[in-house]
């Protein structure tokens, strides 16, 4: 049995792993998350690999890392830097479809070599129209400031979400079904 190390400081990812009944330790990476609009699929994979490489990987360890972004109209919406940017993100998402991408990756040693596996998971999210008053009230909460796209689907019962197509947990920040599939494939 491999010892699991979650390479993330995300409380949501920690909670989801605990809910799966997995025992794990946490390593918090210090990696810049540079993801460009035109190259977001390639960049998110690079960011996650850099997170995995920031932690040492010993024999019998399995490192898990994930990064999540929101893409709307070809523009990447990361974590907002301030209330003004968060308001802009929410106005952009209002009444529209966007896609939440997560790159889920693992790293482990096999035969003395580091092995990497990753999956890019996409979920379509449709927002209802959001009023300016709703945006103002939402910005008074701590919710929008540490999440890609300035919202958390799990907070306030998905207040702005009309429907999703794909994995709910991907929108939360960790596509758990894909993780389970990856873990089953590792010897």
UniProtKB/TrEMBL annotation:
Q: Where in the cell is it found?
A: Cytoplasm
* Entry keywords, A to Z: Cytoplasm, Hydrolase, Nucleotide metabolism
The record ties this protein, via CDD domains, to: Maf
Catalytic residues, chain numbering: 67
Q: Which GO terms describe its molecular function?
A: dTTP diphosphatase activity; UTP diphosphatase activity
The processes (GO biological process) annotated in the record are: nucleotide metabolic process
Q: Where is this site: Important for substrate specificity?
A: 12, 68, 154
Q: Reaction(s) catalyzed by this protein?
A: UTP + H2O = UMP + diphosphate + H(+); dTTP + H2O = dTMP + diphosphate + H(+)
State the function annotated in the UniProt record. Nucleoside triphosphate pyrophosphatase that hydrolyzes dTTP and UTP. May have a dual role in cell division arrest and in preventing the incorporation of modified nucleotides into cellular nucleic acids.
> Into which family does the record put it?
Belongs to the Maf family. YhdE subfamily.
Protein name as it appears in the record = dTTP/UTP pyrophosphatase
What organism is this sequence from?
Answer: Candidatus Termititenax dinenymphae
Gene name as annotated: maf
């Amino acid at each position: 049995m491999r010892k699991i190390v979650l390479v993330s400081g995300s409380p949501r990812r920690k909670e989801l792993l605990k809910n799966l009944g997995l025992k794990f330790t946490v390593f918090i990476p210090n990696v810049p998350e540079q993801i460009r609009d035109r190259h977001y699929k390639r960049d998110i994979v690079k960011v996650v690999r850099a997170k995995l490489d920031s932690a040492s990987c010993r024999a019998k360890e399995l490192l898990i890392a994930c990064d999540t972004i929101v893409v709307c109209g070809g523009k990447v919406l990361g974590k907002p830097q301030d209330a003004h940017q968060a308001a802009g993100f929410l106005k952009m998402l209002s009444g529209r479809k966007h896609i939440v991408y997560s790159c889920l990756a693992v790293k482990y040693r096999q035969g003395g070599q580091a092995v990497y596996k990753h999956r890019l998971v996409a979920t379509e999210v449709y927002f209802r129209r959001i009023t300016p008053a709703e945006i103002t009230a939402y910005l008074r909460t701590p919710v929008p400031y540490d999440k890609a796209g300035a919202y958390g689907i799990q907070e306030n019962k998905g207040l702005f979400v009309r429907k999703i197509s794909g994995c709910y947990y991907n929108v939360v920040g960790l596509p758990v079904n894909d993780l389970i599939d990856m873990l089953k494939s590792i010897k």
